[in-house]
Amino acid sequence: MKKINILTKSVYNRIAAGEVVDRPYSAVKELIENSLDAGATQIDIYIEGGGKNLIKVVDNGCGIERDDLCAAFFPHATSKISCADDLNNIMTLGFRGEALASIASVSKIELTSVTAGNCAYSVTCEGGKVGQVVPAALEIGTEICVRNLFYNTPVRAKFLKTDKKEESDITNFVTRYILGNPHVSFCYYVDGKLTLQSFGGGLDEALAQVYGAKVISECYKINAEKDGIVISGFIGNQNYFKSNKTYQSLFLNGRYIVNNTVSTAVSNAYASYAMKRQYPFYVLNISVPTEMVDVNVHPNKFDVRFLDNRLIFGAVYSVVSSVLDGTAGAAKFIVDSVRIPEIKSTSDSQSNKVYGSDIFEKPDTAVNENLKNETDENKKIFDPFKKMVIFDDHKPVKMTISNKSVSEGFDNYVKPAAVLLKSASVQQKIEVAECVFKGSLFNTYLIYEYGETAYIIDQHAAHERIIYDRLIAKMESRKIERQSMLIPYLFGANPQESEFIENNIEIIRNMGFDLKPFGVGSYRVDEVPADLQDINLQDFFNDLLSDLKNLREIKLESMLKDKIATKACKHAVKGGMRLTDAEVYSLLNLMDGDTGLKCPHGRPVCVALNKNDIEKMFKRIV
Q: DSSP H helical segments within 181-300, as ranges?
């Protein structure tokens, strides 16, 4: 009984399609690369339904001869290479001859093309079955329409993302091709609307069209050669970072790649300048001799293999770190003449703000504390003594308590060697009316006597927790008051960030932020929660978008609680402030005698010093 089957062309093409074309964005990628390899200087891209319903790419390249139209759909048919030796010197983006055949096997395609001096012809292919070549109308280049992607593979179609998500990923790749091919004009239409446009005016213009003109002033433009490796493009300055890695674009010999060797080299160069959860901004094109790199690693061609990783790492690190550190050799790497082009709007109805642009300045917002009117008498009056000496009436000085040792009792949850400060675990709740205020240590720690225990309360931590609990109660009860902003806050987002915001916009609004779209890839905030009216919105949205890989796991309310904790910390009375008698008793009342509280950051509010412990210290008891 026969057990080994020879698969037919229709079957193995569909299998191959799974590697080359797994989602609409990969089909768009392959078609754009074909246009670029054809020498196109103008490429128009159209998508509908996230690329599931329609993908159309039109270019002004060299075109396809009539006799080659049908062969274009055959597996491993390519004009890029002709023999095995050509794989050692690949100069084009495509070369495997798999893309068009793979796309055609899972969609309905119409291919129209014309070469110089000839008439245009068209051919259709449905599910891998090629039709007849017929005359058509087209002035120049090639037009290819892909409809109903994965119509005949329902299992794969079932695993496609939402239209918005697929659109977002396609948009992301289109922006990469604009940046990687700055001398090519691109027009990108989504559901009939012009969404992105570049004019082929060079990298300065392409960068401005994608990220906004202001980005250029935050970057160094470089053009360097190191060990035979040419590195050019833009890198952010020492103070310009993004909240995630989606603003990093790397091209090798014109091909968009994702490579760990290069990204690590750049990250290491920025290591001494970047803070936690900050990522460098860069658009880099690296040119190396073809014999130094293998691009035939995977059908999607995103990753490559270098002959010498250390050489590539060293060259990139050396150039980037020299520019950032301002070494003597940096001058020859930096391009002085950087043209900041005027951004050309893609349509009259859209703002000049495009993906990720920082073209709008963050307005100053009025700060209204509404918590405590501090007077000159109670502002930062510090105790001139750095130590408190405790005497016993029968014995000489036995111990010294410094401000630092008391602080350690709160910050590190340990009892200092000099004093047996311990958490008030015996009694969490005390009667406020029975407490007697005994004084203040260092204008920071309030001492209350209750029975045979002295309770030492960190005034800042206590007030911080009180404010935090009040704000959280408002948020959880959804009784959130909004404060209108005098000047709206405007910010830009790239396609991935926009997709996340759109999916969660109602949640963000329910948190008290009046957030709405404002042009292409831009948003505006007109109102904020009244209790957070002085929040730094730039920091808030940077935190929100700081890890795109895990965005779906983020609980936005948890993030808001962190901001509330920060606000509570900011507005609580500070250590070193002298409180009035009324404020001293008010603080304990607001705590409701709960000595087991912790501040929003986890530090204890109160520690206890028991009479028995004190007597042990003075050897009154053993």
A: 203-211, 260-270
Which CA distances in Å does 136 have to 20, 45, 122, 146, 582? 29, 20, 6, 17, 90
Tell me how far apart the alpha carbons of residues 332 and 598 are, in angstroms, rounded to a whole number.
56
Residue 613: DSSP 8-state: H
Amino acid at 564: I
pLDDT (tens digit per residue) in 385-403: 333 333 334 333 334 445 5
Q: Across the strands, what pairs with 36?
A: none
**pLDDT for position 78:** 56
Burial class from Cβ neighbours inside 10 Å (0-12, 13-18, 19+) for residue 217 reads exposed
> Which residues pair with residue 124 across a beta bridge?
110
Distance of CA 277 to the CA centre of its chain: 9
When pLDDT is cut at 50, 70 and 90, the band that residue 58 belongs to is: very high
pLDDT at position 368: 31
Q: pLDDT value at position 476?
A: 66
Q: What is the pLDDT of residue 378?
A: 36
For the chain, how big is the Rg over CA atoms in Å?
33
| Pairing status of strand 282-287 against strand 248-252 | parallel
Extract the tokens encoding 41. 């200087």
Q: Reduce the secondary structure of 458-526 to three states and give it as a string.
A: EHHHHHHHHHHHHHHHHHHCCCCCEEEEEEEEEEECCHHHHHHHHHHHHHHHHCCCCEEECCCCEEEEE
> CA-CA distance, 111 to 64, in Å (whole number)?
10
Q: How far apart are CA 195 and CA 346, in angstroms?
A: 7
The predicted pLDDT at position 507 comes to: 77
What is the rounded distance in angstroms from the CA atom of residue 215 to the CA atom of residue 358? 7
47-72 b/e (C-beta count within 10 Å ≥ 16 → b): bbbbbbebbbbbbbbbbbebeebbeb
What confidence score (pLDDT) does residue 96 get? 47
- Give pLDDT tens digits for 317-357: 999 999 999 888 888 899 875 555 555 554 443 433 334 43
Which residue(s) pair with 608 in the sheet? Answer: 422, 455
Q: Please give the model's pTM, rounded to 2 decimal places.
A: 0.63
Angle of helix 537-544 versus helix 556-571 axis, rounded to 10: 150
For residues 270 and 267, give the distance between their C-alpha atoms in angstroms, rounded to a whole number. 5
- The answer to whether residue 91 scores a pLDDT higher than 60 is no
CB 52 within 8 A of CB 163: yes
Own/partner long-range contacts of 325-332 (Cβ < 8 Å, ≥24 apart)? 332/224
